[in-house]
Amino acid sequence: QRIREGSVIARTPLIGVGDMIEAIDGRSLVGARHFEVARLLQELPRGHTFALRLTEPRRAFDMIGPRSGGGRGGPPQVSSGRGTLRLRSKGPATVQEQPSAFEERAVAKVDDLLESYMGIRDSELAATMVELGRDARDPDALAEALDSQLGEFAFPDEFVFDVWGAIGDAKVGRC
C-alpha cells in the first residue's frame, strides 16, 4: 500500500510498492495471507540478516508495445475504430470492440429475462449468453452451448427457449 519514509525498506531502492514477498529465508509464502506474512516478519529477531524473494507485479501498460513504423507490415488491425481498452487483472490488455446495435438489443432483452426468471440483473452474463446464442442454429444448440459454458446455472428449458426467441427477435430488429 505504501512505504513509510525513513524505514529500512525506504532505503532499499530495489523494493517498491506492490511487490509481493514470495519467500523469507527460503520458506515459501505463496498463498499465505497478509497477516501471516506480517507475523513472520515481526517474529524475525532484530539485527538478524534474512533473505527476501520478491515478485514484482506486471505493470498495466508493460504489455503494450510501441507503434511499429510504417504501414507495410500487413493489413491494419483496427476494424471499426470503435473500441474500448480493457485492462484485465489477469492477462494482457485487450481492445474490445463496442457491441453492435443487435448485441445491445439482445443483451437488454436477455437481461430482462434474467430478472424475470431468476431475479438478477447481470449485463455481463446476458452478453455472454448472447455471444453463445449468436451462432446457435436452434434452441437445442443454444442449450448445449449454455450448458458447456454456464452449466452451473442450470437454466430451465423454458428460459433457454425464451432467450433463443429474444436473440432471434434482436437479429431481425423486433425489439
Automatic annotation (TrEMBL):
Superkingdom in the source lineage? Eukaryota
InterPro entries in the cross-refs: GH2_GIPC, GIPC1/2/3, PDZ, PDZ_sf
Q: PDZ domain: from which residue to which, for each copy? A: 1-43
Family annotation (CDD domains): GH2_GIPC (cd21180)
Signal peptide: which range, if any? none
Q: Region Disordered: which residues?
A: 63-95
The record's similarity note reads: Belongs to the GIPC family.
The protein's name in its UniProt record: GIPC1 protein
UniProt organism field: Ptilorrhoa leucosticta
Report which gene this protein is encoded by: Gipc1
